[in-house]
Amino acid sequence: MHKKEQLNLDDWFQGNITALACLHFRQDVEEEWIAEETISCYNCRYRRWVQSGIQCMKTPME
Amino acid sequence: MKFYLCIDDTDNLDSIGTGAITEQILKKLIDHGFGPCSLVTRHQLYIHEDIPYTSHNSSMCFYGEAPDESLSIIIDLASRHLETVSAVGSDPGLCILQYHASDNYSDLIAFGKAAKHTVLTKEDAIKCAQSFGIHLSEHGGTGQGIIGALAGVGLRIFGNDGEIKGALKHIDLNKKYSVAELMTFPEVEQVLNFQTKERLTPDSVIHMNNRSKTVMYHHHFVLFVAKKDDGSYESLPKAEIRKLGENFYA
Q1: Which residue of chain B comes nearest to A49, CA vs CA?
Q2: CB of B244 within 8 Å of any CB in chain A?
Q3: Most CB contacts within 10 A, which of A5, A26, B37, B152?
Q4: Does the model's ipTM exceed the 0.95 cut?
Q5: Residue of B nearest to A47 (CA)
């Protein structure tokens, strides 16, 4: 996937503001939450973990 | 008899998670009259582009008690449930081990540890399972989930890996709890200072100011907390817990 669709391992601020504006955001199950902010790409069921961070499976993150 | 059960690769992006399916199987076993069963643990496995996981590559495991000679019933019940609820496009795998305290599981534990930093194959899993007489079965798709399922059992027996599913989700964030209060939750057996690994006394106070989780450490459900410069204690964020790495638990 294109780099723009990824966030690094701990870009909590960007994960929060991106998810707040995202129409596709859907909370994952509680055991998979990792960000402190409830609404965050890191807590979204459409993110996929890769070695360098997370990848959006729905839409570009930036 | 004591048994361990673990499943992996049962979901897709829109389905219920592997953790929920594990708890459904656990409930079915209890409803059948088996048990008691332990809490479910989540075991993080290797994140690598050559591994076809859905979103985070983790497996879910628990252990329980059942009458002798009931292994085939457990296998049948879990298999049928997996085949009913697993998601389209998933590659479910099921592992069930009848545990014998006198057996040496070091190779199984080594398999579990290897699955955290190596790309393993189904053949690797089958070979390892056969040497222990472990039930390992595929339930759709490529059946790739048998690798994580076997690894999860190895890691649970190891006793130094995994987060407790659902742990601490009912605590109030930004509230202070004594260790004694925290230990009223079934998922908290010990509270340890993560810098020294010393056990805190029941009257110690923890500021639970972030989402934290208990983890398996020396076969106990442990909440690791940090000591601040002023001598008070606070919880560790989940992201920090996941960064601790294997060496921390050794």
Answers
A1: B56
A2: no
A3: B152
A4: no
A5: B55
Is A13 in CB contact (< 8 Å) with chain B? no
A61 assigned to some structural domain: no
Domain count within chain A: 1
Q: How far apart are CA A50 and CA B49, in angstroms?
A: 7
What percentage of chain B reaches a pLDDT higher than 70? Answer: 100
CB contact under 8 Å between A46 and B56, yes or no, is: no
Q: For residue A28, is it within any domain?
A: yes
pLDDT, tens digit (0-9, with 9 covering 90-100), for A34-59: 999 999 999 999 999 999 999 999 87
Beta-carbon contacts of residue B127 (< 8 Å; ≥ 6 apart): none
Chain A interface includes B56 (CB < 8 A): yes
* Residue B170 to chain A, least CA–CA distance (Å): 11
Query: Is CATH 3.30.70.2200 the right assignment for the domain spanning B2-163?
Result: yes
Residue A43 has, within 13 A of its CA and on its CB side, a CA count of: 21
Cβ neighbours of A34 in B, within 8 Å: 238-239, 242
Helix or strand holding residue B133 (H, E): none
| Gap between the Cα atoms of A2 and B46, Å rounded | 22
Residues of chain B with CATH 3.30.70.2200: 2-163
3-state helix, strand, coil in chain A (%, to 5): 30, 20, 50
Instruction: For B158-198, write each residue's pLDDT tens digit.
Output: 999 999 999 998 899 999 999 999 999 999 999 999 999 99
DSSP string, B63-107: EEE--TT-HHHHHHHHHHHHHHHPPTT---EEEEEEE-TTS--HH
Residue in B closest to A42 by C-alpha:
B239
Tell whether A16 is within 8 A of chain B (Cβ).
Answer: no
Residues spanned by the domain of A17: 3-56
Q: What b/e sequence results for B28-60 when a residue is b if at least 16 CB atoms lie within 10 Å of its CB, and e otherwise? A: ebeeeebeebbbbbbbbbbbeeebebbbbbbbb
The pTM for the full model equals 0.95
